[in-house]
Amino acid sequence: MIAAVLRRWVPTCAVLLLLNGAQAEGQDVQIADVSRPGEQEPITPVPPVPAEDPRKVSLGERLFKDPRLSHDGTRACMSCHDVSSNGADAADRDRGVDGSLYQFNTSTVFNAALSFRIGWEGRLRSLEEHIETSLNNPILMGTSVDEVLVKLKTDEEYDGLFRKAYGHAPDRDSLFNAIATYERTLLTPGSRFDRWLQGDAKALSPDELDGYRLFKSLGCVSCHQGVNVGGNLFERHGIFRPLASPKPEIVRVPSLRNVATTPPYFHDGSAPTLGDAVRQMGAAQLDRKLSDQQVDTIIAFLETLTGTYRGTPVVAARP
Q: What phi, psi does 122 have (nearest 5°)?
């Protein structure tokens, strides 16, 4: 049923992209007007970090960074989702516990709580579901929830932390909740674009504003909008030309928050730079060959989407 709906809807999305300002090949694109800062824009600012129970946040962060959550103790959630840099890593695809390549490029954990689904295919509906799936996946963490709980219950310090935060020994629900509570704090507010949305007219340069106008006129904003500049619908990629690996054909639209810090791009990590990604998206999704100037102008806007984590700007991961 869902697949049938997507087949009907996604081609319509492609039409909407064109109707939002993309003209026939060889014609100029009319740059959409940008209203005064913050007035009726299709993108909204990242909200402040939610006020969560600090005991649960601290416990969740500790679990997120603990390699004992993997079967052989060699990797933690942090191994692929490095919150000291971009919330992901610099690999096109990470390797599993058995040495095999993951199917997909690792998405950043920053602002994941703001997306309507988790994962490139959007199969997971909550952070808790993603945590359980990751632990049980033989390639990702190579363990099981039951195995992790045995480790936690026999660790006197962890047992005490769970009892302080939840009033009882570790169990499935408290394990998932602790990590998810921490992940909900992994928001990156304070980008220059958000400051502009909130009324700071000087937060963006004229070139950056031109990039935002072009981003809207071309139709990029049809799929990349909302608080996460994406992450709130599905799309069929390669509508006009092939884009990245052909499978899966339909993916969840990725968030563009902090996008300048998260190369490589696409679900298979096949676009090494942001310029490559913008050019390929223009051709594959909009049927347009973007000029170098257009690409540079859009990138200027995208770079303003970089926010801060715990007061420090998000940075790219080291190769």
A: 65, 30
| Residues shown for the chain | 319
At 284, the pLDDT band (50, 70, 90 cuts) reads very high
Rounded Cα–Cα distance for residues 229 and 226 (Å): 5
pTM, full prediction? 0.89
**Contact criterion met (CB below 8 Å) for 244 and 268:** yes
Domains contained in the chain, CATH given? 2-47+188-313 (1.10.760.10), 54-183 (1.10.760.10)
**Predicted local distance difference test score (pLDDT) of residue 12:** 35
Reference 226, options 12, 16, 41; nearest CA is 41
Question: Side chain identity at 50, as an amino acid letter?
Answer: P
Token pair, residue 1, equals 């049923």
Cα 243 from Cα 224, distance rounded (Å) = 17
How far is 315 from 259, CA to CA, in rounded Å? 10
**Residues 185 and 255 sit within 8 Å (Cβ to Cβ):** no
